[in-house]
Amino acid sequence: MKRNIVRDKNGVHLPCLMCGAGYPLPDACHIIDKKDWRTTQERESQANGIPLCPNCHRVFDEVLRPYLYGALTKFDAVGLPDSWKRSNKMAVTEHSLPNNDQRSTQE
Ligand SMILES: [Zn+2]
User: Which strand (E) or helix (H) includes residue 67?
Assistant: First the structure.
């Protein structure tokens, strides 16, 4: 699975989808964590992965997913993956992210 995500059909390693960096080699980033998939088969599908360099992988996991979760929840989306609720990695916590109420004063 990872090979299909980080390499094209000719076996050439793909650049990072977010910043375009080719080095360091992008990881196969799971969009939705394995634990949130109901079946073991689909969680490893190509549709659940994107090639991201280590920096962008971290930004995706720690920042983008919590922001998306907040926006989608306010949009009344249901069934969102639990792993998107908060940073599931290291540095950024929910407290360090501006919440939607603080940002919406000029909307
Ligand atoms: Zn990148």
Answer: helix 65-74
